[in-house]
Amino acid sequence: MTLFLPQQPGTVLLVGAGPGDLGLITVTGLRALERADVIVADRLGARSVIDQLETERGAPLDARIIDVGKQPGHHPVPQSGINDILITQAKMGHRVVRLKGGDSFVLGRGGEEVTACRAAGVDVRVVPGVTSANAVPAVAGIPLTHRGVATSYTVVTGHDQLSEIGGGRDHTVVVLMGVGTLINSAMVLARSGRGDDCPVAIVEDGFGENQRVTIGALGDIAFRAARRGVRSPAVIVAGDVVTLSPYADGAFTQATEPAASSSELVRNP
Fold this sequence. Notes:
InterPro entries: 4pyrrol_Mease, 4pyrrol_Methylase_sf, 4pyrrole_Mease_sub1, 4pyrrole_Mease_sub2, CobA/CysG_C, Siro_Cobalamin_biosynth. The protein has helices at 27-35, 46-57, 79-91, 110-119, 132-139, 182-194, 221-228, and strands spanning 11-16, 38-41, 64-67, 95-100, 123-127, 152-157, 171-176, 199-204, 212-217, 234-238. The protein is of the alpha/beta class. The chain has two domains: 11-130, Tetrapyrrole methylase, N-terminal domain (Cobalt-precorrin-4 Transmethylase, domain 1, 3-Layer(aba) Sandwich); 133-263, 2-Layer Sandwich (Methyltransferase, Cobalt-precorrin-4 Transmethylase, Domain 2). The chain has a five-stranded parallel β-sheet, with helices on both faces. Strands 6-7-10-8-9 form a five-stranded mixed β-sheet, sandwiched between helices. The longest helix has 13 residues, at 79-91. The radius of gyration is 20 Å and the shape is elongated.
């Protein structure tokens, strides 16, 4: 028995699409997409899942798809507009799926959308998803916690106050939406107790065709990223757990040579 399906007309389901691989959306989320009248979709993760599902079906989904995807520095539909779309479509009697990348409640503004729907008298429920904060490091072989290495972790954006994060290198820090602020983030984390030699990994386009991993340390990761042309979307991981990744093999044996090729691995799993 499921608490979410069958979805009733005039309701909204916030569905976490996961990191963009069709195999990582929940069964409930997948069924919701197939039964929806309207899908209000983000860009990251969500659009990829829709495309993969339609390819697998060999036909488009029956639902009308409304694209509200945001790009860095370009938000064609503001958050208030997204809220209005959800409410309007639900009040028209549609089964509305709000498809968001990762998990709706992890740095996804899902709480704001739930609050808006409830305030408007619209029945809204949340279908959890797999957040990129743990899925993308995992595909690069980086555990966020590991016995004897790290017992806790924090997930932040590149715009958060990183200086307020406690702990040392045994407290893993995962930074989402952080490529544009990488120089400042690395400097702040290094100065707040982790040190310039704290291991760092940047995983670009996790689960995508252009997935690649850049390994370095807080003191040189901005240089490495600039030299390699690192771009969003990417997940940044800082902490000693990075050394457990197969991508890090040999990366920290010559810490004084920031341009060493062994520290700039590119592999496609």
